[in-house]
Design goal:
Layout (H helix, E strand, L loop, with lengths): L14 H16 L2 H8 L4 H8 L3 H9 L4
Helix pairs in contact: 1-2, 2-3, 3-4
Length: 68
């Protein structure tokens, strides 16, 4: 199913915007920064923090509790 089929204006909802939204929703629901990092393919947790726009201190505190 593509964007037009679900009623989204294709020029307003690019693949990058949808990717960021999905990653943000996963992070908000789970609080699992490491899982989001893996899903996005980031090698550094700091990249994921910047990508999501979350507070660095909060994100790193959560990441410390996740087994790598």
């Amino acid at each position: 199913m593509d964007r037009a089929e679900v009623g989204l204006e294709t020029t307003a909802y690019g693949t990058h915007a949808l990717r960021r939204t999905k990653a943000t929703l996963i992070y908000r629901k789970t609080g699992n920064l490491r899982a989001v990092q893996i899903l996005l393919g980031h090698t550094k947790i700091e990249s994921t923090v910047r990508y999501l726009g979350v507070e660095v201190g909060d994100a790193l505190a959560i990441a410390e509790h996740v087994d790598l």
